[in-house]
Backbone:
């Protein structure tokens, strides 16, 4: 093992690591991310949990309005059709995935507590959602 090679590698890591910290800090403020497939496009903000869905040439639908004080985002992973991350201060992990024309949202709490998702604004074009529990649950 020669020192110059390690010094070079350390120099590269020294340049990359501060950039990675800047990227993770940018998720403390609103950051819109999109996922899509051949049918739908979803734009969401992992910091505020604001979510909109657009299918084809139809206007975008507000799935969930923005929230405040959810804390920092950790472990954001994204693919073309899905994303997942956690909100450590709220002890919650969130997964969004597009499956055909459906948006699957999975919210998992590490311990009991209060958490609200989705937040449906009164002015939104949707009046409620049908959730896939039992025979279907209508949520206004």
Residues:
């Amino acid at each position: 093992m020669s020192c110059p090679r390690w010094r070079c590698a350390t120099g590269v890591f020294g340049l990359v690591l501060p950039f990675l910290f800047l990227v993770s800090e940018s998720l403390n403020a609103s950051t819109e991310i999109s996922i899509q497939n051949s049918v739908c496009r979803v734009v969401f903000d992992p910091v505020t949990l604001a979510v909109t869905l657009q299918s084809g040439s139809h206007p975008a639908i507000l799935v969930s309005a923005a929230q405040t004080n959810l804390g920092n985002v950790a472990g954001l992973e994204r693919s073309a059709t899905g994303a997942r991350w956690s909100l450590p201060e709220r002890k919650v992990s969130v997964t969004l995935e597009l499956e055909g024309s459906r948006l699957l949202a999975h919210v998992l709490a590490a311990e009991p507590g209060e958490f609200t998702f989705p937040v449906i604004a009164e002015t939104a074009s949707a009046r409620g959602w049908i959730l896939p529990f039992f025979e279907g649950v209508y949520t206004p």
About this structure: The chain is about 15% helix and 40% strand.
